[in-house]
Amino acid sequence: MPASNETDRELAAEQEHVTALHARLDVLREQARRSSSGEAAAVWRAELARLDAAEDGLCFGRLDLRDGRRVHIGRLGMFEDDEPLLLDWRAPAAQPFYTATIATPQGVRRRRRITTRGRTVLALDDDLLDPDSPEQGALVGEAALLAALTALTAERTGRMRDIVTTLQAEQDHVVRDGHAGVLVVQGGPGTGKTAVALHRLAYLLYTRPHLRTRGVLIVGPSEVFLEYVGQVLPGLGEHAVVTATIALLRPDVHVSRTDPPEIAAAKGSADQALLIAAAVRARVRVPDEPVEVEFEQQVVRLDPAECRRALKLAFRSGLPHNQARLVFERRIIGLLSQRLIDQMENVVFTDDGEALDGGDADGRLSTAELAALAAAGVVLGHDEDPDGPRRLLDEVDAARLGGALSADASVRRVLDELWPPLTARQVVTDLFGDTNGHWSAEDVPLLDEAAALVGEGTGVTFGHVVVDEAQELSAMAWRMVMRRCPSRSMTVVGDLAQTSDPAGVSSWDHALRPHVDDRWRLAQLTVNYRTPAEIMDATADLFAAHHLGLLPPRSARTAGESPWRRHTTLAELPHVVAGIATRHTDGQLAIITPLPHLASLEAALHLATPSAITDPVVVLTPVQAKGLEFDSVLIVDPATILAAPLGHNDLYVAMTRATRRLGIVHPGPVPHELARIRVGSSA
Question: What is the pLDDT of residues 125-134, one digit of tens each?
């Protein structure tokens, strides 16, 4: 039979199965839609969203097993009368789709990749893993790699695509890693570490359903980045995820100021935690002299030893400052109440209520004692035992006296002098000077630290946290993230060669050990699927000059286009960049520039401010470009980028965002790290 007929027959068979799957999906969606009201409405709406997200690329693979069974792989599991129609890609039985090879076939005879558009099957690609099979097919892994590279060379849309259909074995091992602590995914540009982290999160939600009730958090470097990756998890069938930057973890703090690099580095140091703790503790005063407390014309003295014992009791509670203050306050109020009661209790009444022994010389209660009793709501002369001496105050009266003391303004002034209530903003302002309400991004972890210490609370805790571009987190930011994940179940993604924050990470062990000891593990991604070899070769001098201990990832492909550079003047820079952007018509272009040129370039290009990440042409700083990818990248003024602290890492980030083309425009001499890039133009 001719090969074309065989292909048509296979396509028709897969089309029939895919059509049946979509019909079943429609039934499930209609059931969810009809149930999306009443007590369980929220659950059914979430289920409907999950089913809707699975529409595109519902089924993308098939495994033909050596025992004769066939298993289709897709975005979610589907059954009919307990018969599996589609296996969720996260199920253990689906793993061979990503990891089987001729050497280790894992019971697989054939792996088929199914390409669809909408509900139509377009193409089939087979890997034959049985060396004894008479059938002919593609080399092992070639279809998978070809599919991955085809996806990467497609034009960018300003949104990250999921890679569930093209996960490579190295990536899949990370996705399915079951480490219960912190898993660090170290990977250079284009290795897919962000996508791997998101797919691992989807996998964990599948294998550990309790995480859905405890909540999961994704921390990203910028709001642009969060928008960029926002569609990945819904496409994998997961919606119940919170995304935030470090600053957005404190929505009550408005960031409106930028700290100089040296100040930012100082504020990010772990030493700040000690300074904040010391500042909070220092607000508590340990008296050296007796403390006089006036209450309704009565003066009661507390000696220093009594105050110190009350302070020690409060400190030993381990509670935050404002809650520990309540322990101290109860102790002091108790002492004051008892002291007043002792002064009043040696009173004996006659039958008509006359005091025989009291605070005055004539044996009566003094005016101050009577006022104190009245303030406490105590009524005299109604004792249950009329014979002989009796107690003036019962337990209810003593409690009322304590309440009156707690509410008294003069008593509270004394308490505030010894143990003042604090706010996080007050603590940070006292340490770093009056900000007039203008906070920087580096202030946010400091405010969070102070909030934890004074007892204002630090928000919701989560069952699992993903931290992307984690190399940018300062020591104080790490403390902030750890407070939101008591279980320390985390996926940490980053590249030490791309650190640009002056307080960022230079060692994963140094960053994590203070919080998790040795409960962290390193996984490395080594293959660059995004950046073509021509561009990675252009970064070689820059990388070698600054990262002697690291190896760059190896590129999986070439693009056939060499990077170029062009000299101009500072005055002509906006005009030259605008001209290049105007001539660009092939895919999405990112213009990556240092901050001083940002406004002039946006004006020259007549772009909205800020530009949307989905626009055909976007203008970004290197920090804003972190984690993103574009068809083409134009780097403006690399010398100014290099001049910033850790500017060599910023330039490395900028150079490795492109999937196809890289150009550089430099006013003045070209930096020596880029001197070997050919002189040319985009034309």
Answer: 998 988 666 5
